[in-house]
Structure formats: C-alpha cells, structure tokens
Write a structure and sequence with these properties.
Elements: E1 6-8, E2 19-21, H1 26-30, E3 48-51, E4 54-57, E5 62-68, H2 82-94, E6 99-103, H3 116-129, E7 137-140, H4 144-152, E8 157-160, H5 169-174, E9 179-183, H6 201-218, E10 226-229, H7 238-246, E11 259-260, H8 266-272, H9 280-292, E12 297-300, H10 303-317
Parallel strand pairs: 5-6, 5-12, 6-7, 7-8, 8-9, 9-10, 11-12
Antiparallel strand pairs: 1-2, 3-4
Helix pairs in contact: 2-3, 3-4, 7-8, 9-10
Amino acid sequence: MALPGTWRASTGLRAGAFFFNTDSYMTSATMGQSTTLVSPRETGSSPLLQCGRFELDLGRPLVMGILNVTPDSFSDGGDLSIPHAVERARRMVDQGADMIDIGGESTRPGAAPVPPQAELDRVLPVLEALRDSGVPLSVDTFKPEVMRHAIEAGADMINDIRGLREPGAIEAVAASRCGLCIMHMQGEPRTMQEAPHYDDVVRDVGGFLAERVQCLSRAGISPRRIVLDPGFGFGKTAAQNYAMLRHLDRMKVADQPWLLGLSRKSMLGHVVGREPRERLAASLAAALYGLEKGGHILRVHDVAETVDAVKVWRAIKDESFV
C-alpha cells in the first residue's frame, strides 16, 4: 500500500532527485510514534538526510538559498518586510533552490546579539508563509527558545552556528524529526575574528565536529538527521579557511555529509579584493572546489548562478548527465 504523502520531481538541477514529503506524519510524530519512511526508488549508496517533512537524497549536490530577515547581514540585509522575504524565497525556489535557510539574526563578525522574541518576530511569519513552497525550510538560530517555536511552526532543519552547545539546545531538537546542521565556530560573532588560533585547524575542527556527533548520538539523535559545517569565516583567518577547504576530505566525520557556506565570504574578498556583492565568480569557484572535496549542500546567496554552475560541473563529472 502506498504511503501517504507526495513525491515531487522537477526539472533542471533537480531532475531525477526526489523529495518525500512526510507532512502527513507530523501528527503521529508529535505523539511519540515512530514512522519508517521507505522510498519507492532504489537509493543505491547515496546518503540520505532526514529533514523534517522530507528525506533528502544527497547523491547529487543540493543548493540552499540564503534568506536573511535582518537589517545588518554582511551582504544582503536591510529589508525586514515579510512580503519582500517571501517573494525572494519563492524566486529562489523558482531558480532551483532545493532548500531555504531563514535567518533572523546576523552572525557576521562584530554583530550584536538579538533578543529571542525579536528573532522570532522576524522568522516565524516568513516560515509560516513558506510552508507550501515544496522545499525544506531551515531556520538559522542558536537559541533553544527560537528552535522550539520554529519546529512547532514547521521548520524542517535547525542550522546552528554554535553546534547545539547552548544549554537546552539538544533538548529542544531531540524529539523532533528536523535535520540538524552542526557548525564549528571559535569564540562568538562579536569577537571571533580578533585573533583566531589553532594548533592544527583541520585536525581541531574535525575533532570538534566528531565530538558533537558523538554527543548528539548519546542524546538519541540519529546520524541521519545530521549535516556538518566546518564554519568558514567563523573564528578563522583567511589562511585557516583555505586550509580547511583544501583538506575538507581529511576532516570527514564518519559518513556525515557536509554543508558548505562559502558564498561571498571575506576569505574570497581577501584574494579577489572585491566587496561582498561582487564576489559571485569567487563564490562559484570555491563552491565547485568544495564539491570536488566531498561537499553535499551549498548554502548560497546567488541561487540561479550556482544551479547553473553545478549543472555544468555534473555534466563534466558524469557522461550520463547529458
């Protein structure tokens, strides 16, 4: 008997890749019942990521569109209106975004903290308006209170720059089905770039992420819900960022997939000498190298251009793609 829910296949970059929408299981999940989702396609050896209503096939790269609902993000903040945010998100989906990451607090170097209620006031209306967008919705937050409300409102992923280290963060997400992006950051946004130091950045960051996966496992969280982010630009010098990208394959933690946030970062400006909005070419170069080194999800500002670049990268790598 077919499971309730809908399969969605689309053209372009997403061709041949399916998302299983498990919206109909949300009630039973919240009642503590477990449901095993079986895909009616052959998955082969492709990694799968449980992400709220969706099970994502990571056998090909996914593009996550960045939606900042903040006045002070480093490259695209400013307009806090809900209609503008929703319109931008839908445009990114039309351009081929596989996921949308909604952020209500800037985490750029030097950024001041935002109270939880202010963050919720920015994020929740956008999250609720995009529930019918057909793609997983991620919320970028490190606050347990925001996590709980976001999950209740239907967030499919929590993207945490602090790696679920805040008191109560693990408890806020443990019983849900949402995906979890665990990032490394040395220090905190206001001061993280003042004097970052590592004995060996590749070993140290890899060791931190391995420890976080073990900690979540002890809390009963399945590895199939976890994706890792090395935290480019979060408490690292330009040289340290490039060392991590160059040796991303050496940092791999078991079979956990990578989410890479390289778009418009200062490490790119350090090389090309351009302002954030002028770093498209540099962002694409870094993203494609990240895929070569084992990346699975690209978190980007420029969705259409990244989708095109990944299409060509796939055509070069796989003759059957064209």
